[in-house]
Amino acid sequence: MAGESNGAPPSGASIAQVAAPAPANEPLAATNPEKLTPAQLKAKAKAEKAARRAQVKEARAAVVTAPPTSQAGGAGADAKGGKGKGKQDGQLGGQGKGGHLHAHRPSVSGRRPSMPPVERDVRGGIPECFSHISMAKRIPLSQAHKDVHPAVLVIGQQMATFALKDSISRLRATLLAFRKVIEPYETPKGNSLSRHFVPHVLNPQIEYLTECRPMCFAMGNAIRLLKAKVNKFDIDTPEDEAKEGLLEWIDFLINERITLAEYVIAQNAAQSINDGDTIVTYGRHRLVEKTLLGAKKIGKSFDVTIIDDPYELGGQELATVLREAGIDVVYSPNLGGLRPKVAAASNLFLGGEAIFANGALQAPSGTADVAMAAMNAGAKVIVLCETINFDRERVSVDALTYNEIDPERCTAESFRLLFDNTHDKYITGVITEFEFGGGNSPAQAILALLRKQEDPLIA
């Protein structure tokens, strides 16, 4: 009869399955696939889900092509004592509806998971001998340390994309961000600000900024002074008093070493320009621009030759500003024909990114070529630089020790360095906010003065 089952139970079937009578309206048991218990169905579904997750993970990693999960799914189903649900004998247990393998349908929508773009290794073509030179890179916000302040996160992204480019603009933004870090800070119970703030609060901010772009010398000097100021606080100093002292110190550093320094340097440099002079400059530097505009404002009559950086083209903007101020300008888009351009020059004004202890100048690439040509032509080479950019300890004799690789111009065939190194013998003098230095080693006298000037900052 249709409702009875004779003979031995089929292999692998449970006693409950054999003893349970089939409903009268169902076809013969011989033509039905075996049913799975709820526990087996749950285990089978769990195994298939795990297999799909594993495959999607492998696909996203893009390491190798993911193997079909149907075999793994079938093996998992057999291990649980059953075949694929609702399928005839001979079909793979890992198949889904419609007979499609899960390997081809890892998502609910039936489409392959979108492959994340593989990030290009921009340093892949850099030779090993230049591997020590750093390069700016954008750090995903999700990878930043949890203790990094939102204001510092913004500054880091701006530095990585060169929205904040020169050393002083980076320094100013960093100090203002540190101000926002200090204001809400509260010392944990059982600690003191002088012992807790630097390692647990300040250092994560510094590490993140350094990962985004190598730290400039101005930032390094300011952070060194800031840490020294924190360490000067007595362990019993009240938190409010210490915080107020740090905030006042940051304001003083911005006003004295950045804002006032910029004004004094431009004023002193403008006084060194005489009527009828031909001033040559390279690219666009804010101190040189303020100097030329200041000299025109006090009635000096002179003309300017701008030799532009062919990669940055900032000289175009400088030429526009100077012409609008009524200054005669000759513009050259590159270093071609450099010697005749500097032959009639009276002074060459250059802006510096940093000055080392041996008097060497770090400046945008191309500066050294212009300085050497001007010196050989008999022109004075004058560098305008704030003392916060001076490095009192390190020396530099080439452009390969302290430098950066331009991330926008780095390919498998070539790369470009952002800065070059101008030896002190090609520099006539340096104008800072403290004094005008002359001679072949203009930095030496200024470095001695710096030690006296920085002592009050950390006292």
UniProtKB/TrEMBL annotation:
Keyword Cytoplasm: yes
Region Disordered, annotated ranges: 1-118
Pfam families: IF-2B (PF01008)
GO cellular component, as recorded: cytosol
Record's keyword terms, sorted: Cytoplasm, Initiation factor, Protein biosynthesis, Transferase
Amino acid composition bias (Low complexity), ranges on this chain: 13-42
Domain of life: Eukaryota
UniProt xrefs under InterPro entries: IF-2B-related, IF_2B-like_C, NagB/RpiA_transferase-like
Keyword Cytoplasm part of the UniProt annotation: yes
GO terms, molecular function: transferase activity; translation initiation factor activity
Chief location bin: cytoplasm
Localization per Swiss-Prot or TrEMBL: Cytoplasm, Cytosol
Basic and acidic residues biased stretches: 45-60
Family named by the database record: Belongs to the eIF-2B alpha/beta/delta subunits family.
Subunit relationships: Component of the translation initiation factor 2B (eIF2B) complex which is a heterodecamer of two sets of five different subunits: alpha, beta, gamma, delta and epsilon. Subunits alpha, beta and delta comprise a regulatory subcomplex and subunits epsilon and gamma comprise a catalytic subcomplex. Within the complex, the hexameric regulatory complex resides at the center, with the two heterodimeric catalytic subcomplexes bound on opposite sides.
Protein name: Translation initiation factor eIF2B subunit delta
Phylogenetic classification of the source organism: Eukaryota, Fungi, Dikarya, Ascomycota, Pezizomycotina
